[in-house]
Amino acid sequence: MLSPKILIQTRRKIKQRATFGSFLLVVLIFGLFFEAYMHNFNLVYIVLFFVFSFALFASPFALRNLVLLQTTLVKGQRIFAKEEGSLHFELYANKSFASYALNLKCHDQTVFLSELPPHQKTIVKLPFTPNKRGETDIKGCTLDTIFPIATIRFVLPVETSMSVMVYPMPKGESLESFLAKQTGRFGEESDFDGILPDAGRTHASRIHWPSVAKGNSAIKKFTHEIPLERLTFDFVRAGESDEERLSQLTLWILQCEAQKLDFAVQMPSQTLYSQRNSIDAILTTLAAY
Amino acid sequence: MQSLPHWLPTKPTPLQLLDIAYIVVILPIFLILKTPMLFFVAIALFLIIKGDIPSTKRVLMLMLLGGVAVFLSLYGSFSFSGLSRLRLFVELLIYLLLIAVALQRLTRTINFYLKLSPALLMALSLFFFHSIGMLIYVILEVYLLLLVLMWAIMRTEIRAVLRVATLFYLISLPMMVLFFIFFPRISFEHATYGFKGEIVKHSGHDGVMHIDNEGLLVPSNRIVMEVGFEGAIPPMHQLYFRGSVLYIQKENTWIPLQIKPKSSVPQKYYADHTLTHYKVTLYPTNKKWLYLLDIPYETTTKAKTDYDLEFKVDKNIDEPILYKATSHIGESIETSLSAYLLHIALAFDPMRNPKSIAAIRKINASTDIPKERLVAISNLFRSQYLTYTLKPDAFDLKNATDSFLFDTKKGYCTHFASAFATLCRMAGIPSRIVTGYRPNGGDSIQNYLIVRQKDAHAWVEVYIDSAWQRVETTSLASVIQDGIETTNQTEQNAENQQNEWDKLSLYLHYIKYQVDTWILEYSVLSQKKLYSYFKSDTFFVLKFIGFFLLFVVLLFVAWWIFRRMQCRPKELCVLSPLFDLLAKKGYPKDPSESLNHYFERLCHEHQLPLETINLLYHQIRYQKIAQPNTLLQLKAEIKKATQHLLS
Predict the structure, then answer these.
(1) Measured between CB atoms, does A138 come within 8 Å of chain B?
(2) Residue finishing a domain among B129, B156, B183
(3) Taking 70 as the threshold, does the pLDDT of residue B524 lie above it?
């Protein structure tokens, strides 16, 4: 059973906005009133009073729909500046009945949830494209509904001090291209693991010349191709401006992660090692630079 | 065809929802559509069901067809005077709206007026209907439209929508009822101008009286009027609803005076407690008479009365009317009798009925006192062992009284009344025949009475001692056939005559009457009456509040049932009250923790006996080892835990 205190608290938080349905409701009530009142059309009166009652009970019904809803931001999603990502929210109806027709709105994005079952968590994904890197506050998120009869939009602000770390936009030269420019970056001859077809534009030191001599194009493959101490990204050399550098580093880090390569990032004041720091920690450092 | 379980989870498109709304609102409109419009609607429906988006040419053709259909439907009504009639105007609006909706629906595009039109069509359709059937439909219609609206908003499966819409509807009902009762009204009655009822001819009472020689009177059960008394119904043998008064016998037909005396009966003062107040719903008779109980006193309707205490309206009654009336229940009307009327009230044809004339001569010779002559005439009737029957034998029309009294000796009320009035006139007693209704008493519940065509009746009034006094002539019958009325036996027999079906039918009529009175015809007068009860009758107030609370409780029970139904899955639903109790006791569940963790935490940290509940719940929910009775065990454990928490 809902306590009046909780209901009152929730009611104070809810803001009401007129909708097009409000306008139609007023027109309908006036129309029916004039039809009924002058000529005592009791059937019209019945319809009129039904409409009136629905309008009156819409508010408490909407309050019941929005009460005891908990919205929390699920962290751990990587969000990059100027790239479409998604915010993950966990919605939980901490009550014994379901909520319906909820719109979760955040940063001009809306997602519709037709039903939120009681005592169950639901993860809602909301598109999010931040403009800049760094810690970004997720403000002004609301849960709103036009339930039950669309005459009023009931808006419940999502009360959480939520923030997400937006990583720099991954952009720049690819890791492959970067590696191609490096010298002595491949493994020892003892690590030779076989040959691969040559896709072209391969550094001369990596070409498997015996195959070339036989008329084939192939490159050498090593078990340990890039020793850690050799794959170091230098912040200063990564680009011309800070943003370019951060974007470039982010791209390389992500590509290293995809290829399971260990690396180091030489920042002006510190060096970040992938073996010591998690990828997210390194990206966070870049984001906060 | 998909089975119901397959269909239930489906979510309709907005267009499908609109289609449902249109079906709901158009159903009653079909009853008023003229054939050409029905034809148009059928074509439009065919094209909509076919599903193709028609070409512009085809749309134009359909629009033209719609125009023609409207023209043909309203052909003959196109005049300025015609258009002033509200019904025609509303009908035209509905036709135009239907055409617009059909054309828009064909494009399969939802626009503003396609969304708005269901509400418009419903509002317009309410102009045409004023019956219990429509009342029930309107209540259902509102529910269905609410359901469709909420379905469109919720965009979820029908089960959830049904449950929530029903909850919302139930919770709104008491408020609607309160508004209906207490919202201040200004109109006295339901407006009917511009709406012409069907012309219905009722043959029960037609203002004249024919003496047939071979008539078989078929009693009709058609209801003429319904009467609601403010107090108890007066004794049945005193219920004479006065219709026309007949003075002139033209061969075998009794007719009223062609020129009535201008004077009316002087309004006699009656003490309030001797007056009976009642309300009449009179159905179309196509006659001008309002039927008031003898002796009529006054009525609220604009009706004219005269010397004979007939109450007549200006125009024939061709639609149901409601009127309130007051009467003094009695048998004698004190008044003077002009020489002109005396002459008419004594007139008879001396060339007819020689046997009767001979018999009366003997009576006249024996006494000069009118009362004694009257008794003698009554005794003459009794001595003839007359039979009351609805199947009288053929008799001599030239000497109808002789034939009835001395030959066939069979007849019904008109034969008795005609013969008695004629004999009275022969005896020098002014007499007249009154026709109207005398209900047999079988069709009544509490203060409610139904008067049917078969209750049509004729009786005689004789002028004695400066008053017109009623004589119930059928009471002079010695034998009753057909189980039909006599004054004394009617009340005794009435109950026996009813079978169960009749009783059910009567109760249904009673309900209908109450619905008519308190819902369909509810007006400012009803409100005033209600307020006066509130002011003066504390018991009534308590009764009213009691009934209203009972209504609310019933709705709450229904609401509770529907609310329970939403609990899914069942095992979680069973746990729900326990969760609420635990939260109340200060052990709320953290949203982020699993149920297993929650129960274990409470067990270890707070020593609450929830291990078994945890075990059973997870068996039912996630393991295949649950038995059919595991849920019962879970319920029992929850009960135990609840008791533990409460103690």
Answers:
(1) no
(2) B156
(3) yes
The domain tally of chain B equals 3
Instruction: Name the residue with tokens 């629906």.
Output: B105
Q: Is residue B550 part of a domain?
A: no
Distance CA B588, CA B586 (A): 6
Task: Quote the ipTM score.
Answer: 0.80
Using an 8 Å CB-CB cutoff, list chain A residues near B123: 28, 31-32, 35, 44, 47
- Four-way CATH pick for A1-167: 1.10.3720.10, 1.10.760.10, 3.40.50.300, 2.60.40.10: 2.60.40.10
**Domain assignment of residue B266, yes or no:** yes
CB proximity list for B531: less than 8 A, separation 6 or greater:
none
What are A41's two structure tokens? Answer: 């059309």
- Which residues have C-beta within 8 Å of that of residue B89, sequence separation ≥ 6? B83, B194
B191: which chain A residues are within 8 Å (Cβ-Cβ)? 38-41
Statement to judge: residues B147 and B255 lie in one domain: no
Asked if residue B165 is part of any domain, the answer here is no
Choosing from B503, B531, B559, the residue where a domain stops is B503
pLDDT computed for residue B545 by the predictor: 93
A26 touching B (Cβ < 8 Å): no
Task: List the Cα angle B633/B635/B641 in 5-degree steps.
Answer: 105
Q: Do B126 and A98 touch (CB under 8 A)?
A: no
Beta-carbon separation of A147 and B179 below 8 A: no
Place of tokens 């400066």: B466
The answer to whether residue B326 is domain-embedded is yes
Alpha-carbon distance B523 to B186, whole Å? Answer: 8
- Which residue segment(s) compose the domain that B305 sits in? 209-503
Contact between chains at A47 and B168 (C-beta distance less than 8 A): no
Residue numbers in B near A61 (CB within 8 A): 168, 171
Between A240 and B219, the more confident residue is A240
Q: What is the pLDDT of residues B228-252, one digit of tens each?
A: 888 888 888 888 999 889 998 887 7
Do residues B283 and B369 share a domain?
Answer: yes
Tens digit of each residue's pLDDT (9 = 90 or more) over B401-455: 888 888 888 888 888 999 999 999 999 999 999 988 998 777 788 888 888 877 8
Q: Which of B94, B136, B164, B598 is best to mutate for the A interface (most A CBs within 10 A)?
A: B164
Residue B186 CA to residue B194 CA, distance in Å, equals 20
Q: Domain ranges for chain A, please list them.
A: 1-167, 168-185+226-289, 192-225
Residues of A in contact with B579 (CB under 8 A): 96, 119
Q: Give the mean model confidence (pLDDT) for residues A101-124.
A: 89
